[in-house]
Amino acid sequence: MTTLIRADRLIDGTGAAPLKDAVLVIERGKVVGAFEGQPPEGLVAANSRTIDLPGCTIMPGMIDTHVHLNLPGDGTSLEEAMREPEGVLVATSAFGASKALAAGITTVRDVGALGSTAINVRRTLELGYGEGARVLACGQPITITGGHTWYFGGEADGVDALRRKVRQMVKLGADFIKVMASGGGTVNTTSWLPSYSQEELTAIADEAHRMGRKVTAHCLCATSTDYVINAGFDQIEHAGFIVDSKGNQKYDPAVADRLARSGIPVTSTLAVGGAVVQTMLSRENRTPAEEALLTRWTKMRAENLAQFGKLREAGVAFVAGTDAGWRFTTITDMPMEIALMEEGGMSASEAIVAGTGFAAKVIGIDDQVGTLTAGLSADVIAVAGNPLENLDALRDVHLVMQEGQLKAGQMLNRFAGA
User: Fold this and answer.
1) What is the pLDDT of residues 205-224, one digit of tens each?
2) Global confidence as pTM
3) Are 266 and 233 in contact (CB under 8 A)?
4) Which CATH number is 2-60+371-415 given?
5) Rounded Cα–Cα distance for residues 188 and 184 (Å)
6) Are 4 and 378 in contact (CB under 8 A)?
């Protein structure tokens, strides 16, 4: 059946000006075209169905390029989460993918999970045994012995062992390779120091590319970012400038310039700080520990936004990713991430593209989804109002469609039988 979705406007995910009085035509799960006013005569069959969404905006489904489906995003630490049996982590991941889809996030990229849990959830959804956001998964993030997220099972050291670990992840079914190039929030790791040597990172990138996989790296210090640039990675997560154990940061313009000239895009993950601050501010009668956490993360949120702005000014490209699951960041926090990107200096249109079309391009699925381009999968959402005027509109999802099938949203019950 041919489906027409009508709304006040349409944002196609490419950065082009929005269409007014828009009609999106969908057939056999694919986008046929987007038009202002009426579609061309003869394009639409007589038995087509029409979904009218006055006051709404049609746009591509959001793409969160950095999630951890194993983690609940409710303040549970990584160490606490890893005490749960594997079955609980699989179920948590499946529920997370379902929640993401209902929020208009039609694709998520899982950048680290225990064993093959996220890969198994991806396969379950592919088989049609449930509904959830499309999942891309790396399996286990590769890390040094005792390094950041070592609990997931990705420990490997030395050039030969690292090449073998890349091959093991490809064998497991990894869509891409993820590397912890510095420490992070895992207990007893050093976020202000690189984890791997230049030689080791170069070997990982070489092996990943030889196996036909993109490779991305978690970097929280400038030296790790430098190493990753030299190694020829495809993407960087965070790109922080932490210099000591207290989390203090010192922006390095020389590293920023090298990063910009490399053309390697960075995943923003601004929502981590945003979610901590939002959660602590919502609590009445905060404990001294919660007050300290609020103070620390208010400072870090401001520093991260400032560095985001400086990196953009230097010419660094960003894609949207929330780090969902980590600390208090939920699987539905993409609207917060996109709004923070605007606060950091992007226009609303640029921020939306960073979470749709450009995100798809960077993670290698722009031939499938990300824009409302003819021939691509009809992963479509409709939100109330105009997100180009107020990004809070992304929180009010009226329709979610994945591969041309209605999935969720306030309008689902009305049109499910149409």
Assistant:
1) 999 999 999 999 999 999 99
2) 0.96
3) no
4) 2.30.40.10
5) 9
6) no
